[in-house]
Each structure stands twice: as C-alpha cells, then as structure tokens.
Amino acid sequence: MLLIVLLAVLVSGALKSREDYMQRLPVYKRYMCALCHSVDEFDTQPSGSNVNDFGRDFARGGYVWDAALAAMDSDGDDYPNGIELGDEDGDGEPETLIERSNPGDRLNNPSSIDKDTWGIIKNLFKD
C-alpha cells in the first residue's frame, strides 16, 4: 500500500512539473505537451526521450521564456519561436490568445504570412 501511495505522489509530481513548464510559456493551449515533445501514433505519451528541438532549447535556457528563446528558430522553419507562440519580443505578454503554430514542429508554421510579408506589416505599425 505504501508503495502505491509513493508511486502516485511521484507520478503526480512529474505531471505537475510538466504543467508548470507549460505555464512559463506565453501561450500553450493549442499544442500543450506537443510544444516540447514529439508524439506519434505509436508513442502517444510525452516522455523525456521524445523531447523536440524547442523543448531542448527551453530546457537549456532553464525553462525560462525570454527574448533569447523567442528569437530562436528551434524547429528550423524560418519562423522565430516568438512569432510561433504569439510573443515576438519574448516579454511574456502574448499578442495572441493561442499559438500561431508549434515552434517544435518544422512542418507546422504560420505560413499564411511569409517572413518577408510579416516584416513589412510589422514596419507599418512601428512607432
């Protein structure tokens, strides 16, 4: 019985820590665990062994969302993590309520607006 209680405490602590990590990101509602973990049809549960490039960058930075992580392009899709997560400058104040795309998945990007067009639009609204 003691073993079952101990195991339940350990598992709930691990799940809680994952939720704590997600809450450090500006938005995470759409992709949740898939922001940092690759999940396929055979491996449906995130684990330490399937951390994607964004998850590794997030971990290397001490699980802190900041301007440095926002400026990175972890998945190599030509869109910085900040644009994908809706907080371009990495100040923790998102410009959107949900992610534009997943910074850990190269095939998932905000392709409706290409990088050059985004720069032009952004310059139109500069102070």
Automatic annotation (TrEMBL):
- Regions of biased composition (Acidic residues) lie at 85-96
For the region Disordered, what residue ranges are annotated? 79-112
Sequence ranges assigned to domain Temptin Cys/Cys disulfide in this UniProt record: 18-90
Instruction: Note the superkingdom of the native organism.
Output: Bacteria
Record's protein name: Temptin Cys/Cys disulfide domain-containing protein
Instruction: Please tell me the species this chain comes from.
Output: Eiseniibacteriota bacterium
Give the lineage.
Bacteria, Candidatus Eiseniibacteriota
